[in-house]
Every structure is written in structure tokens, then in C-alpha cells.
Amino acid sequence: MSDQLSFEVLEKAIVALEDGMRDHEQYPQLLIVRDGVIQRFEIAMDLSRKLILRVLKEKFALDDVSANNKTFIREGARFGLIADAEAWMGHLEARNQTSNTYSAHLAERVFAKVPVFLPDARDLLMRLKDAVA
């Protein structure tokens, strides 16, 4: 790999997201906590996307993979970086929704996806580490 690939930032993002979920369990009435969890989801999803792309390009020499479409998810699944491509398509869709418009209904829908995303993010992290080991 061209320069040292570190997964520390994704690890920290996942921990921050888990912390946010615990905070929400303690203070479910606080919308600012829910919104913070959504923002942490966005960060973790963006970092996941960047790391998947980087590993696909540097480890598997796939230069034509783009973050602008869902190809990186399919290729990530093909190379064993992602266990469930359909689940990741759903994560990506939720992430894309957060950047288009804001509504309380949308926020609740995205927030509801976070518990499903967390185990997938942890699994991705393990698979990325194994791929570059």
C-alpha cells in the first residue's frame, strides 16, 4: 500500500456511535442526542465508504470503482470486505437521505437504522483489517 493504511479513525467513529446510542438510551427525549447519533452515523458511514474504496483500489487494484454509485458495495462484497451487500445498500441509502433534506420523520427513520449498521460496521472493520494483513 502506498502509505500506511490506518483503521483507527473508523474504530473511533464506531465507538463514538456506540457511545451516542448509550446516551440516547439514557436520554431518549433529547432530540439533540438523537441528532448527534445521526451525525455520528454519517461520519462512520463516510469513513467506511472511503476505507472500502481505498482497500479495493490499493489491495485489489480496482481503479474504476467510484463512491458516487453503489459499485463499491458490490465489489466490496465480491472481495469479502462486506458480508451483506443488500444491508450496505440500505446503509448507503440512509446516509444519502441525511444529506438531502431534514425532517423529523426522516431523522427517526435514519436513527432506527443505526442499531443494524453498528454490527455491520464492526464486521467491516474486521474484514478490512484482515484484507490488508
List key phrases describing it.
133 residues; mainly alpha; Four Helix Bundle (Hemerythrin (Met), subunit A); 75% helix
Quick gist of this model?
About 75% of the residues lie in helices and about 0% in strands. The protein has about 130 residues and is mainly α. The protein is globular.
Protein described:
- The chain is mostly helical.
- The chain has a single domain (8-132), classed as Nucleotidyltransferases  domain 2 (Four Helix Bundle (Hemerythrin (Met), subunit A)), CATH 1.20.120.
- Helices cover 75% and strands 0% of the residues.
- It has five helices and no strands.
- The chain has helices at residues 8-26, 31-58, 71-78, 85-100, 104-132.
- Helix 1 (8-26) packs antiparallel against helix 2 (31-58), helix 1 packs antiparallel against helix 5 and helix 2 runs parallel beside helix 5 (104-132).
- The N and C termini lie close together (11 Å).
- The mean pLDDT is 93.
List the helices and strands and how they pair.
Blueprint (H helix, E strand, L loop, with lengths): L7 H19 L4 H28 L12 H8 L6 H16 L3 H29 L1
Helix pairs in contact: 1-2, 1-5, 2-3, 2-4, 2-5, 4-5
